[in-house]
Please model this.
Amino acid sequence: MSTKNKKLLAWVAEVEAMCQPDRVEWADGTKAEYDRLMQLMVDGGAATRLNDELRPNSYLFRSDPSDVARVENRTYIASRKQEDAGPTNNWIDPVELKKTMTELYTGCMKGRTMYVIPFSMGPIGSPISKVGIEITDSPYVVVNMHIMTRVGDKVLKHLGEQGEFIPCLHSVGAPLAEGQADVPWPCAPIEQKYIAHFPEENLIWSYGSGYGGNALLGKKCLALRIASNMARREGWMAEHMLILRFTSPEGRRFHIAGAFPSACGKTNLAMLLPTIPGWKCETIGDDIAWMKIGPDGRLYAINPEAGFFGVAPGTSMSSNPMAMRTLEKNSIFTNCALTDEGDVWWEGIERPCDHAIDWKGNSWTPVSGAVAAHPNARFTTPAAQCPVICDAWDNPAGVPIDIFIFGGRRTRTVPLVTQAFDFDHGVFMGAMAASETTAAALDVGQTLRRDPFAMLPFCGYNMADYWTHWFAMGNRLGEHAPAVFYVNWFRTSRDGRWLWPGFRENSRVLKWMCQRVAGEVGARETPIGNMPVDGDLDLSGLDIDPQDMAELMEVDSAAFHADLDDAEAFLAKFGDRGPARLREQLEALKRRLA
Model:
């Protein structure tokens, strides 16, 4: 450790006095540190080293069955005023929450090592990046942060003596009495779990969970909930978006940022292999985009993460071959199954497995009657290993965004692709984004879950103010604002068949978007937005029935009216705080549909 940052040293000393660890280590970000901590966890029974010939330098962890996912009902926005958190966040008074959590933190690291992790979200020194310091008693967190962020002495050097950082405090909440044996996955009971954000202080406190975004505090906690607040105050954007580069056969580059709720193929799109000749897709980020207006007036985006933290089940060579190839080495797996050969396995991986040790540590066969991997089993893997990673993925200046895409999983109503008439209309599209809560093919009994900009669980302040910020950014961008599109890969026929092949074929829709931005194709105006003129969407080589295509592009006014009733009810939750421009867009759409 080498820092003279007085604010940082004082905070570390304060946490040490409160949490009472046996020792303190500063993470240096080196391979030697990573290997040492991994060996420590292998020796302690927390990690299993995978077969080095099958999956070099990779490890499997099994969490406690009570600690398997983000705990939204234990995630809080502790703003000073409840109305600043808004109706879609859990709020607790910050003074009350700090009192509760301070009692839990007192002595919580007894018998453990306290690790201090200096990390950069985004390339070190980028004008869009931020420095965080995570204090944790979990070596699992340290090794995951090695992959997911830029960690170590080089971050401290950039921070300097006066630099500002975002303090992130984490504990698994399981102190050890003298002589007490540890367990492979320490954590606290659910009623003691807290993932707390104090937006006015840019402060994160997490207690009781060792899993994923509850513990890797650079992820959703900093990169979205705290950063969205900072972005609003400072005039930039922190979004739950993939970033990709799509290059035409002529070499023109388009940069696309897309927001999709879970289970809508976001990672698949980020690592797309186009089926259309001559077009090339490169990954910049699969989950989070931080964007600032550059000197030329355009919006520039970075991926603030250095790795991918993805859901394993369902990932396969047919659904996402580039993710599968990224995972071939140097990866951490959590709650996957362990094969007899010493490799990982999960449902949907598309290769047989006759026997494995399941995510709970039990013997498993295909007739066991339970899943081998937890449905939220994860991989942590370096972004730089992705075979289609873009050479600009860690460019400190970012990439200029040409297109925003929003979408959701809808079996009916919403057509394959629509372009917003203008940026305000695009904000309305993003604000009203929704997915169905069931996988049924028919609308009967289905409910919609509104997930504005795919940010519902991640916006760190009142969603109404968040919409206002989007409009304000549109005002500043003016003619440089990205074009906005809405997609639905999941529409089904009236008899329940998928109408669109999806996956790699989605490149055809991206091609049309890029041609629209380049002014190479026209569009037909519909009440809900601009849609492709017949023949402009490249379907060459696809065997799609013309009737299916017509149904895929159908705009059913009656169905959209019912959709708007739901949207209006959602907007009503925000009262007068919702921006008038959003209401104007809703009324304008009603008139167009009449």
Notes: Confidence is low (pLDDT under 50) at residues 438-445. Residues 308-382 form a domain with the Phosphoenolpyruvate Carboxykinase; domain 2 fold (CATH 2.170.8.10). The chain is about 30% helix and 20% strand. The chain has three domains: 6-46+71-235, 239-306+394-593, 308-382.
